[in-house]
Amino acid sequence: IIATIEAGFDEKYAQLERQHAEFAVHIQTQIHQIQQQIVQLHQVQQQTPPPLPLPPPPHLLNNTFGPPLPPNMLTRMPPPSQTNNPNAQQPPPL
Predict the structure, then answer these.
(1) What CA–CA distance (Å, rounded) separates 11 from 27?
(2) Is 69 exposed, middle or buried (0-12, 13-18, 19+ CB in 10 A)?
(3) Where are the stretches annotated Disordered (predicted)?
(4) Nearest of 54, 38, 36, 58 to residue 46 by alpha carbon
(5) I need a surface site. Which of 5, 8, 12, 94 has the fewest CB within 10 A?
(6) Tell me: the pLDDT tens digits for 6-30?
(7) Residue 58 falls inside a structural domain
(8) Which domain holds residue 17?
(9) 20 within some domain
């Protein structure tokens, strides 16, 4: 009985060793392919010029002090000065 168990164990062990060897070859192949892809990627990056910088978004072109102003802030006019406009209604004297 022990001899049968040992024979089965040896057989399983040999099978595992074969699987391990096949897996190791598979991993080595994968590593080699990845290394080739990295080399090709570096070659392509060296051949292509760097991309041009993108233009700034439109709201940064006219307004450098933060987010764009709401439309009502852009169209609001200051109140007319009453000293420069003779036709303006003067408040009645108290």
Answers:
(1) 24
(2) middle
(3) 44-94
(4) 38
(5) 94
(6) 989 999 999 999 999 999 999 999 9
(7) no
(8) 1-48
(9) yes
Residue 19 lies in a domain: yes
Whole-angstrom Cα distance, residue 69 to residue 59? 9
3-state helix, strand, coil in the chain (%, to 5): 60, 0, 40
C-alpha distance from residue 36 to each of 4, 27, 48, 89 (Å): 48, 14, 19, 84
Using alpha carbons, list the distances in angstroms from residue 44 to 48, 51, 54, 55.
6, 13, 22, 25
Residue type, 89: Q
Pairwise CA distance, residues 88 & 10, whole Å: 111
- CA atoms lying within 13 Å on the CB side of residue 82: 4
Asked if the structure places residue 6 within a domain, the reply is: yes
pTM, two decimal places: 0.40
For the chain, the domain total comes to: 1
CB 59 within 8 A of CB 68: yes
Residues across the chain: 94
